[in-house]
Structures are given as structure tokens and as C-alpha cells.
Specification:
By secondary structure, this protein is of the alpha/beta class. The strands form 2 sheets. A 6-stranded mixed β-sheet has the order 3-8-7-5-6-4. A two-stranded antiparallel sheet has the order 1-2. Helix 4 packs across helix 5.
Length: 213
Amino acid sequence: MEADKITYCIKCGKTIDINQFSHNKGYCKECIPNIDTYLITHDLRRYERILKIKLKDLECKHIMYINNNNKDIYDTAIKAFYPNIQWGFYREHSIAIENAIINKMITDNFKKSIRITITESYVWCDNTHTAISYIRRKGANICIKDVPFYIVDTRNYPLKPLTICSEKENLWFDQDCIIGAIQNSLRLKYFQEKNNGRLRHWKIEDLMKQIEY
């Protein structure tokens, strides 16, 4: 990590140390979500429409490099305190490195469940490397329902508990992992709410065009 990178709490906007930013998943100590109630369901019927979305069409939380096609995407993310919109924010910024991570997943036949985060405005892919690895393995028409996944539905939170929906075999992790997943999903909710964090779509397909090799 670069010590001179400026980072902010995704929720309140306070300047925080980059190590704290990374350790706390983008939050300052005071804003780390205290998740004491959530609902887990294996009834996928209410998400039938979402499960038919192609992975390439999911909203993408990263760009690789800034150009005229995405400068507005980058600028609104920075204003919304989401500096890690640029892939490789925590490491060396390199297309080769990101492709190497994806290619290792393909070689290892890595089958991690993709976290799908639903906010009021978008359906997000919250595991970018994994999603791209599935697309490269199975083709551009592959949908959410065709791969291991779990959904974190943040709509109506905090008025109502968050909902996690998945087939049983794809939701194997423990309480701490579930809380961490929810905290990560809420970053996208806060990102979207802050200064209208994203005003138009930037999809997984758009990122893939930037890392073609």
C-alpha cells in the first residue's frame, strides 16, 4: 500500500489512514456497521428476474484505467469516498496482475460463490475477479443462476433487516464471514447514496474490455 494515498470513510467521509481503510473495509472505527439482525432464506423465487441477469451485465465496482468513457464514473466515485474504484488500489496498478489472478482461478477451477449485492438502483457484482473467471470459462451468456452465488439485499435497510438469499450449499461460511460480507455489501449501498455515487451504468463487460489480452 502507498502511505500517501488519501482515503475516506465510505459512510461519513472522514479522512482515515489507508491501513485502517483496508482493515475496516472502508469504514472509520465509528462507522463500522454493527450487524445484529439479518434474514437468511433459501427461497429464490423472489429473485427469479435477477438470477437471469448475465454476469457481464452486472454493475461493476471497478475500473482499470481512466479515460473519456469512464471519467464521470471515476469522478463520482471519488466524490462518494470510494477511491478503490480503480482496480489495484491496494496493490500495484497493473492489467497483468489482475489477469494473473483471474487466470489462476481458471487453472485451479476455483468455484467461490459470487456475492451479488442489490441496492436501490443497481444489481452489483461484488467479487469481480471470480465473476470474470466464470465468464472466461463458461462464455459471455452465463447468468447468475449458472454459477455459485449468494445475494445480499440491502434495499430498505436499516428500516428492515438485510436479506441474504442463496442455495444452501453456496452459503457455507460462519457468522464472522457473513457479517464481513454484509459490511462489504453496505459499502456499495453507502457509495450509491453519497452524492449519487453512480449516475449511469458501468458493467463487468466494460471492465473486461479494459483488461483484454
